[in-house]
Amino acid sequence: MRIRVVNPNTTAAMTAAIGRAAAAVAAPGTVVEAVTPTTGPASIESHYEEALAVPGLLEQVALGERDGVDAYVVACFGDPGIDAARELATGPVIGIAEAGYHAAAMLGRRFGVVTTLARTTGRARELADRYGFGSLVTEVRACEVPVLALHDPASGARELVVEECRAVLAGGADAVVLGCAGMADFCAEVSRAVGAPVVDGVAAATVLAESLVRLGLTTGKHGEYASPPDKPVTGVLAGFALGDRAAALAGVRS
Ligand code: 2AL
To answer: Is 5 helix (H, G, I), strand (E, B) or coil?
Structure first.
């Protein structure tokens, strides 16, 4: 089984850390491909950057389709472009917020989220509503460490995330979801420190993707997630016109 874990930002060191977190939970025989788009922002912590990250994500899904990938993980907590990715993909596409929320909802009555910057808390809440978990979210807290500083020991990120997780638990949550793919590699340490379930969406999405593939399930192609119609695309995105690819994908799927 091949699972392509797409880091929608273009920081290769972060892709490598995401790949390690995914590979650590994947079953023997599952190939985890952690990939970085060729275009997009260095990190995603605004709506503008989220929008700019989508073409690069779609590029990596299109390449995965060409190569016979079985499922995809979108490894950014805003779950950017997952609907568009589902239109391109045959197999399941899972966002890390989506997977993290589903897991947390089964680990306790209510859960909270600890994310990077306060400006990303709105999206984390919006996604909880979208996936049907809005009423289970106690609060979304920010550690105020930017994505690319999470691994700088001088940022104190781990300690700050532990502190925010403790506050979330004190506020009545039974579990915490970490709100950034860049927090994946310290999830276990944070969970031990706070003595409660702390969910990393990268790991949760990887095993969920594996499970769906093992069940023989794919993305539904009879309605909203059918291959997009082919049409001209002009300007800097001209290379994203589907052309023959749309016909080929439709043929494979019909
Ligand atoms: C993220 C994430 O997961 N990757 C990224 O670049 N930004 N999330 C966040 N809350 O800042």
So the answer is: strand
Distance, CA of 248 to CA of 135 (rounded, Å): 42
Question: Ligand 1 mean position to 75 CA, how many Å?
Answer: 8
Largest CA distance in the chain: 55
CA dihedral 73, 79, 84, 87 (to 10 degrees): 40
pTM (two decimals): 0.96
The helix/strand/coil state of 137 is: strand
Q: Is the pLDDT of residue 250 over 60?
A: no
Tell me the residue type at 115. T
Residue nearest (by alpha carbon) to ligand 1 atom 11:
45
Atom in ligand 1 nearest the alpha carbon of residue 181? 3
Per-residue pLDDT of 163-205, as tens digits, reads 999 999 999 999 999 999 999 999 999 999 999 999 999 999 9
Say if residues 9 and 43 touch (Cβ distance below 8 Å): yes
Phi-psi group of 243: left, alpha or beta (phi > 0 → left; psi -120 to 50 → alpha; rest → beta): left
CB 26 within 8 A of CB 32: yes
- pLDDT per residue over 107-160, tens digit each? 999 999 999 999 999 999 999 999 999 999 999 999 999 999 999 999 999 999
Binding pocket residue ranges, ligand 1, CB within 6 Å: 9, 43-45, 76-77, 115-116, 120, 147, 179-182
Count Cβ atoms below 10 Å from residue 98 Cβ, excluding itself: 24
Atom 4 of ligand 1: nearest residue by CA position: 76
| Ordered DSSP codes for 124-135 | HHHHHHHTT-GG
pLDDT tens for each residue of 12-65: 999 999 999 999 999 999 999 999 999 999 999 999 999 999 999 999 999 999
